[in-house]
User: Fold this.
Amino acid sequence: MAEHVLVIGGTGMLKDACLELAARGYVVSVVGRDTGRLEAMMMDASAAGNMLSPLEVDYFRTDAFTQAVRHAVELFGPIDAVVAWVRSDAREVLPATMREVSAAGRSWRLFEVLGTASKDAETPRSQPDLSPAGGLCAYREIVLGFVPQPGGARWLETSEICEGVLDAVTSDRSTVVGTVEPSEARPR
Ligand SMILES: NC(=O)c1ccc[n+]([C@@H]2O[C@H](COP(=O)([O-])OP(=O)(O)OC[C@H]3O[C@@H](n4cnc5c(N)ncnc54)[C@H](OP(=O)(O)O)[C@@H]3O)[C@@H](O)[C@H]2O)c1
Assistant:
């Protein structure tokens, strides 16, 4: 049976990663708020002969978000992997995801996408509390860095972000896309 991947915040910079996962045979459920962006993604997938399942919901509305994830599981079966690109102030999203995905009683993987700032020495970000997953969740992080180049450095392009996310999910590992060091070399 095809693996079911839930991508939270998948309609922006992660759009092409979602489409590529669908092209590789994963069942992909995508969370976003904007109907137009979700519909455009579904049409792109369908034009390529693939399918994406839209979950139109504001993840700050925890009950509605939980219901949407439950609906995706009802439609396509238990979730094997979650890619989470979530605002740092949306503190309920990961615990709610852990509870709902783990309700199936199977082990699964959480790939949290993080910005360069998550590696700041002054404000180090710690791994989220995995206890709501009841021991069923394996945590991986995908840190978005920058690319050093002569005369400065640049932020990652969307295509590089998507390649990094695909690589992490398909090889099941944490990764840093680009680099986060040295911090003083970051683009301004
Ligand atoms: N190197 C780095 O450290 C780094 C870090 C971060 C970003 N960036 C760059 O910044 C660019 C833009 O970043 P962005 O944050 O605007 O990301 P984005 O991926 O373009 O958009 C955010 C995603 O989250 C969804 N979303 C946001 N709030 C939501 C909510 N309350 N409920 C449900 N879904 C929600 C959005 O869907 P809706 O539009 O439908 O709400 C969208 O799918 C990226 O393309 C990247 O190049 C770089």
